[in-house]
Write a structure and sequence with these properties.
The structure is a single chain. This protein is of the alpha+beta class. It is built from 1 helix and 4 strands; from the N terminus they run H-E-E-E-E. It has one domain. Strands 1-2-3-4 form a 4-stranded antiparallel β-sheet, covered by helices on one side.
Length: about 140
């Protein structure tokens, strides 16, 4: 009778290596997915930053020039629009009786759109606000 030998058989080692390989591939896929999500979140954060920066510049100016314009840089297209606010923008007459005309102010609707390319297509981030300003000087 042969003595008992300790150790693993070749089949047991092959199964263990297979299981380890599946685990490593799964972890690699999770890691690559998290990198893609991080990249997408960074692009969206940059779009929000550009929109906020442009809106802050529009709000900081003393007067508002009506119209629209766009600026394209690297992977982002930033467009802004300013127009007198109408009822659809929430710029109806004041309920308290003190109209903006008495204060020599006009109500403007400001909008900033930032568009960038994403793997699934174009993405857009939009900021809108209302602002009072003196009417444009002629």
């Amino acid at each position: 009778m042969r003595g008992s030998s300790s150790g693993f058989t070749l089949i047991e080692i092959a199964v263990a290596v297979s299981i380890l390989g599946v685990g490593v591939v799964t972890l690699q896929q999770v890691y690559q997915g998290s990198l893609r999500l991080q990249n997408r979140a960074a692009r969206q954060s940059m779009a929000v930053f550009r929109a906020r920066m442009t809106m802050d510049q529009l709000v900081a100016e003393r007067s508002v020039k009506e119209g629209e314009a766009c600026k394209t840089s690297d992977t982002y297209k930033v467009c802004w629009k300013a127009a007198k606010a109408g009822p659809e923008d929430g710029g109806g007459p004041a309920d308290d009786g003190a109209g903006l005309e008495e204060l020599e102010l006009s109500l403007y609707a400001l909008e900033v759109d930032v568009t960038w390319q994403d793997g699934a297509g174009d993405k857009t981030y939009v900021l809108r606000t209302l602002r009072t300003a003196p009417p444009p000087e002629d």
